[in-house]
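Writing this down once: the sequence line spells out the residues, with the fold written below as integer tokens. I am pasting one below:
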Amino acid sequence: MENQQSAQPEASSTPKAKSPNSKPELILFPLPIGSESNLWLISPYYQEEIKKIKVWIAEEARTLRRFISSLKLGIDIPNLEIFELNEHSKQKDVEDFLNKFNKKGQVIGLCSEAGMPCIADPGTLAVRFAQKHGWIVTPIPGPNSLMLTLAGSGLNGQTFTFHGYPPVKEAEQKTFVPQLVKSASSSHSHLFIEAPYRSDKFLQFLIRNIPGDFQLCIGQNLHEPNQRICTQTLAAWKKESTPLGKSPCVFIIGK
């Protein structure tokens, strides 16, 4: 349980004006992970913050423009400056871009393709620069498929490891499986993501290689009308007849 504060501030639907910053600021904006994300995500504060951003770092500029357009906030989208930061970007390219804005009062927005920036996302390169140069870094809370699935799994949320994508090569899998079984059996949760077209293949890999009494949670199509977060033994998953299909999933293994 998180530490409780002795006094809770009163909720307000009107964002308070922020004092001008003496340092540059990098604001981390979450983006939707599903068609229903905006029901939880969009607030007056979020809208006011996003309206003032003229310079952006995004994994894909088209996704950002489409999202901002959907908000209908009157933002001059064609005149936004957008730097694309993806898995092919180099630290030097990011630094060269951000150095242009390393001055008092500059505010830059950072977003991912979906969910929270910098969680399973290359945006970390931009935050690393900001931290190194003493910028203000402001993450805005929003949906994260990993934490949503973990919270809804019933598995250990005190100690867990996010592995990213599972190993594909057979040699890596041979060392990966015994380590995973040993660690998971000590009440440690293991989180994975996989490319949607490989979801069923990864599930079958787990069924073949992990003992049937281990628990597996799959968070599927999060923030969509057909969202499903289901935890059951691998033996029970083996009996499932409906394939996962090409849907985005989070996998959590535990005891």
Notes: The two ends are 21 Å apart (CA to CA). The beta strands are 25-29, 55-58, 81-84, 107-111, 136-139, 160-162, 189-193, 215-220, 228-233, 249-254. The mean pLDDT is 90. The chain has nine helices and ten strands.
